[in-house]
Each structure stands twice: as structure tokens, then as C-alpha cells.
Amino acid sequence: MNLDNSGLHQLVATKLDEAGQMYTQKRQKLVDALSQAGPCTLPELLEFSDGIAQSSAYRNLTVLEEMGVVRRLVHHGEYGRWELSEELTGHHHHHLVCHSCDVVIDVELPTHIEHLMDEAFEKAAIGSKFTVDRHNIDIVGTCANCQETAQA
Ligand SMILES: [Zn+2]
Ligand SMILES: [Zn+2]
Predict the structure, then answer these.
(1) Are 19 and 82 part of one and the same domain?
(2) Cα–ligand 2 centroid distance for 114 (angstroms)
(3) CATH assignment at residue 120
(4) Ligand 1 centroid – CA 116 distance (Å)
(5) Could you give the maximum distance between any two Cα atoms of the chain, in Å?
(6) How far apart are alpha carbons 100 and 92 in whole angstroms?
């Protein structure tokens, strides 16, 4: 796959620079891998980012998370999952989360539904004098693989 992530790298570089952090080659590789792989676990991420040791990848992900570059999708499973923050990608989406195996699948809702939800959330927040910036909503259920396993 031919990656043109120059715009993305520019954004990340600026963000890190403002925080006095270096945008090292390893961090660039992780961002490339995440842009390719979608929400993934550390072992999955390592398959995409050749040559980075697990401990080093984890440390760098933690820094990138603190900088708001990546978001850790925390679920009850053994592994965390990471994805690039929506703020950077500009790609608003939701997650289908399997409660059995913790797989996370990106899913988009129609724009008019997003608008309706935003209106509903703003209305719900008015009573608490709360200003709404954004929403994170997971859709929880059972993935196709786990349904098959359950039937077998
Ligand atoms: Zn599953
Ligand atoms: Zn949404």
C-alpha cells in the first residue's frame, strides 16, 4: 500500500513540537501503522511497524497518547487497543465492540443521525449547564467469529 501521510505527519510533528517532544522515526512508524491498521492491539500494531520492539512501541504509544495523537480504547480484555485520535484524522466514527473477544470494528453512522444525536446530547446537557464538545459511543455485542464459535 502506498501511504501518503505527509499531512498527518505534519500535524503530529506540530503537536509534539508544541509539547517539546521529538517526532522520532519510531513514532512516525507507529503513526503510519495506525493509519493503516485501524483500531489494533499492540501485537497487531507490531506486525505493521517493522522492527520496533514491543516495549519500545508501548512506551512510545504512551507518549503519543499523552500528546493526544492516539487514543487508547480501553476495554475489559487482556490487551488495550489504539487508534489515531479523531481530532487528527477528522474521521468521526463509532466502534462495534465484541464483549466476547474484544475485537473493535470502526463503523460510521449517517450524517443526519449524527446531527440528531448531537442535538439530543446538547438538550440532555442543558440542565447541567454543560457544553458538549463531542461524543464517544461504543456499540457492544457479539462479532461474527464469536457467533460462529457459539453455534459450533
Ligand atoms: Zn468476538
Ligand atoms: Zn458520532
Answers:
(1) yes
(2) 5
(3) 3.30.1490.190
(4) 30
(5) 54
(6) 25
pLDDT digits (tens, 9 = 90+) for 18-37: 999 999 999 999 999 999 88
Same domain for 5 and 68? yes
Residue 70 in grid coordinates? 492516539
Q: Which three cell numbers stand for residue 114?
A: 449524527
Burial class (CB in 10 A: 0-12, 13-18, 19+), 47: exposed
Tell me how far CA of residue 84 lies from CA of 64, 81, 87, 142, in angstroms.
9, 11, 8, 24
Instruction: Please tell me what DSSP assigns to residue 43.
Output: H
User: Do 82 and 96 fall into the same domain?
Assistant: no
Find the 75 Cα to ligand 2 centroid distance in Å. Answer: 19
Centre of ligand 1 to C-alpha 94, Å, is 17
Residues 97 and 74 both lie in one domain: no
Together in a domain, 115 and 85: no
Is the same domain home to 141 and 110?
A: yes
Digit-coded pLDDT (tens) for 72-85: 986 655 668 999 99
Query: Do the Cβ atoms of 69 and 58 come closer than 8 Å?
Result: no
Does 1 have pLDDT greater than 60? Answer: no
CA 41 from chain centre, in angstroms, equals 11
